[in-house]
Write a structure and sequence with these properties.
Elements lengths: L2 H16 L4 H14 L3 E2 L11 E7 L2 E7 L9 E7 L4 E12 L2 E9 L12 E9 L7 E12 L27 E4 L6 H10 L6 E10 L4 E3 L5 E4 L2 H19 L7 E7 L16 H12 L4 H9 L2 E5 L2 E2 L22 E4 L9 H14 L4 E4 L11 H8 L2 E6 L1 E3 L6 E4 L2 H14 L2
Parallel strand pairs: 1-2, 4-13, 4-14, 14-18, 15-19, 16-17
Antiparallel strand pairs: 2-3, 3-13, 5-6, 6-9, 7-8, 7-10, 11-12, 12-20, 16-18, 19-20
Helix pairs in contact: 1-9, 2-4, 4-9, 7-9
Cofactor: Zn(2+)
Family: Belongs to the peptidase M18 family.
Pfam families: Peptidase_M18 (PF02127)
């Protein structure tokens, strides 16, 4: 691929990230792009009989989308790209209004593996969703995104903590509450501010899933602008690549030889154990129902799975120049050298030789490079949704990811070329050329 398509892809990625500060916004952004490409949303209470073309189901912070070519037999195998919509961050507590020593503060809970020092002294906004009173007693949902510098977690001055540069950990329990005003706590103040931003009456708010996000916009870095820097690269790089690939597979000149599927789960950063996580039956039930809706039998469902292939796409580690001893000495991925194929013999990743062969063959057809990744034996290995999906569906799965630095930080980094490389490979896999 030439530089121009890569920059075009990453420009679009940055727009996607800026519009998606929470998992619920990720789903909305993805759904908007799918609908523009002709996909239509199905609800669980709808009749799916005979449904073909581009289809998707959204549930809170998760989205499952697929494309059924006309006249595709019910036993047509799936080509699945698995990703996740959530990122480590600070989430607002149910009773948020707090404070001390003359400061008004907001109570937050730590979500996922957050390097807390990266959230210090950053300008923070609020995003997520509100659950509101609806007609006939049925609650309705409303997204909210406040890209204003409302809050800040102030770092203690070095004069008051001379050990700050000696690796002393931030106290996770007492000192994480962001400040946002002077004075005593005012009960209901946060709710009133957020409801006003959403154009809703605070009295109609029955609950919320709200979180903080860094309001600094995503952008480019480096002497040649060769790096992407943004919040939530893990894992919106992969969600965006998956949406791009699915749309390209559905609208390209060549009809896919498979049923291409995008599975964007929530709560991966805390174990995937929820109704919208990879451990849930969500994907299995939707794919099974899609087979039945096209007149398929249990045998057709089994055949579709037997020929299926899954790519679990999540961010990976590039070798860190200041901590190279933390990496495997023979596996040192770098940005702009292609996505990594992640291997762990203890099944923290689901990759095996069959999966490697299928992914690398697609990379060759796409004209995209790739790199192997293995963790240092002396360091614990992360994991992904790959093993969960492989175990639940029993399909061949390969774990891959764009290599980057500062994973889980409030602001991460990757190469400008790699997101486009990943999307090109995923498109090739979905189409089946």
């Amino acid at each position: 691929m030439t530089p121009a398509p890569h920059r075009s892809h990453t420009d679009d990625l940055l727009s996607f990230i800026a519009a998606s500060p929470s998992p619920y916004h990720v789903v909305a952004s993805a759904a908007q792009r799918l609908e523009k490409a002709g996909f239509r949303e199905l609800r669980g209470t709808d009749d799916w009989t005979g449904a073909t073309g581009g289809l998707f189901v959204s549930r809170a912070g998760a989205l499952i989308a697929w494309y059924v070519p006309e006249d595709a037999p019910a036993h047509t195998p799936f080509r699945i790209v698995g990703t996740h919509t959530d990122s480590p961050n600070l989430r607002i507590k149910p009773a948020p209004d707090t404070g001390t020593s003359g400061w008004r503060q907001i109570g937050v809970e730590i979500y996922g593996g957050v390097p807390l020092n990266t959230w210090l002294d950053r300008d923070l906004g609020i995003s997520g969703r509100l659950a509101l009173r609806g007609p006939d007693g049925v609650p309705r949902s409303r997204l909210v995104q406040i890209d204003e510098p409302l809050l800040r977690v102030p770092q203690l001055a070095i004069h008051l903590d001379r050990s700050v540069n000696e690796g002393v950990a931030l106290d996770r329990q007492r000192h994480i509450a962001p400040i946002w005003a002077l004075g005593d706590p005012r009960e209901g103040e946060l709710l009133r501010r957020v409801a006003a931003a959403a154009g809703e009456d605070p009295a109609d708010v029955l609950g919320w899933d709200l979180m903080l996000h860094d309001i600094q916009p995503p952008g480019y870095l480096g002497v040649d602008r060769e790096f992407v820097v943004a919040s939530r690269l893990d894992n919106q790089v992969s969600v965006h690549a998956g949406v791009t690939a699915l749309v390209d597979a559905a609208t390209g000149a060549t009809q896919p030889g498979f049923i291409p599927v995008l599975a964007a789960f929530d709560h991966e950063e805390v174990g995937s154990g929820s109704e919208t996580g990879a451990q849930s039956p969500l994907l299995e039930r939707i794919l099974s129902r899609s087979v039945s809706a096209r007149g398929g039998s249990d045998e057709d469902w089994s055949r579709a799975l037997a020929g299926a292939f899954c790519v679990s796409a999540d961010m990976a580690h590039a070798v860190h120049p200041n901590y190279s001893e933390r990496h495997d000495p023979d596996h040192r991925p770098l940005p702009n050298s292609g996505p990594t194929v992640k291997v762990n013999v203890n099944q923290r990743y689901a990759t095996d030789s069959t999966g490697i062969a299928m992914f690398t063959a697609a990379a060759e057809r796409a004209g995209a490079p790739w790199q192997p990744f293995v963790s240092n034996n002396a360091m614990p290995c992360g994991t992904s949704i790959g093993p969960l999906t492989a175990a639940r569906l029993g399909v061949t799965t390969v774990d891959v990811g764009v290599p980057g630095l500062s994973m889980h930080s409030a602001r991460e980094l990757c190469g400008v070329r790699d997101p486009g490389y990943l999307a090109a490979i995923l498109t090739t896999i979905m189409v089946g050329d």
